[in-house]
Amino acid sequence: MKNIVFATNNSHKLQEIRSIVGGRYNILSLSDIDCHDEIPETADTLEGNAILKARWVSEKYGYDCFADDTGLEVYILGNRPGVYSARYAGEPCDSEKNIDKLLSELDGLNDRRARFRTVIALISNNELKEFEGKIEGAIIKERRGNGGFGYDKVFVPEGYDRTFAEMESFEKNSISHRAKATQLLIDYLNKEL
Ligand code: IMP
User: Fold this and answer.
1) How far, in Å, is the centroid of ligand 1 from the Cα of 114?
2) How does it assemble (predicted)?
3) In the predicted model, is pLDDT for residue 15 greater than 90?
4) Is 73's C-beta closer than 6 angstroms to any atom of ligand 1?
5) Predicted pLDDT at 130
6) Distance CA 160, CA 171 (A)
7) In terms of DSSP bridges, do strands 65-74 and 2-6 run parallel, antiparallel, or are they unpaired?
8) Long-range CB contacts (< 8 A, 24+ apart) of 182-187?
9) What's the whole-model pTM score?
10) Atom 14 of ligand 1 has which residue's CA nearest to it?
11) Is the pLDDT of residue 17 over 90?
12) Under 8 Å between Cβ of 144 and 163
């Protein structure tokens, strides 16, 4: 079985990808390879940060590796918060403050279209590949729902009338940006072996 590192310690993300990939790859976390580094995420694009993380692991630890980065892109805000989504309202990360800031920036604006975008960078056999997943939608004026995380309470995907936070997780996970990018990665990995 081939080892491949997912540059994360998020146990939910790891479990999800392990169950989809099945027995063909051994997906290792950062702690599995004893990497406790503060990996820099200093790029100003999602692509840049995903690549920084994947390169860090492949160059320093010698494993094939993939890494993801996600952001909420609001069109009328010039695609902000984008790569800065986690820390939009400053440090430490606080989802409720991030939502408050977003709603106040959009106050009085009619064009509330937005999308989530996930980029996954894979470094395998010294070759870089990128996979992208997107979901279009809109930011509503008030929070709705209790599920999910991040900006889910104010994001309604196109073609739906519920926010991500009002959906069951299986429903969100069947249409989400992350699910789409992950599926592309998995299709590629399954073809590669
Ligand atoms: P990460 O790259 O997966 O850590 O995501 C960065 C930030 O984007 C998170 O801290 C959240 O604020 C936001 N985000 C990412 N994915 C989602 C999602 O599925 N729903 C809501 N917010 C998200």
Assistant:
1) 14
2) Homodimer.
3) no
4) no
5) 98
6) 11
7) parallel
8) 182/16, 182/17, 182/20, 182/118, 182/120, 182/131, 182/133, 183/20, 183/133, 184/120, 184/131, 184/132, 184/133, 185/66, 185/120, 185/122, 185/131, 186/17, 186/20, 186/21
9) 0.95
10) 150
11) no
12) yes
Residues found in the chain: 193
Q: Does residue 69's CB lie within 6 angstroms of at least one atom of ligand 1?
A: yes
- Which residue's structure tokens are 């991030």? 98
CB 83 within 8 A of CB 46: yes
Query: Which residues lie across from 67 on neighbouring strands?
Result: 121
HSE-CB for 86 with a 13 A CA cutoff: 8
Residues 6+ apart with CB under 8 A from 44: 83
Return the minimum-mean-pLDDT range out of 7-21, 82-96, 141-155.
7-21
Retrieve residue 187's tokens. 């299709």
The predicted-structure confidence for 148-168, as pLDDT tens digits, reads as follows 999 999 999 999 999 999 999
Mean pLDDT of the chain: 95
Rounded distance, CA 175 to CA 115, Å? 12
pLDDT for 186 beyond 80: yes
Residues annotated catalytic, as ranges? 69
Q: Which pLDDT score, from 0 to 100, does residue 125 have?
A: 92
pLDDT of residue 38: 93
pLDDT of residue 23: 77
- Give the whole-angstrom CA distance, residue 44 versus residue 42: 7
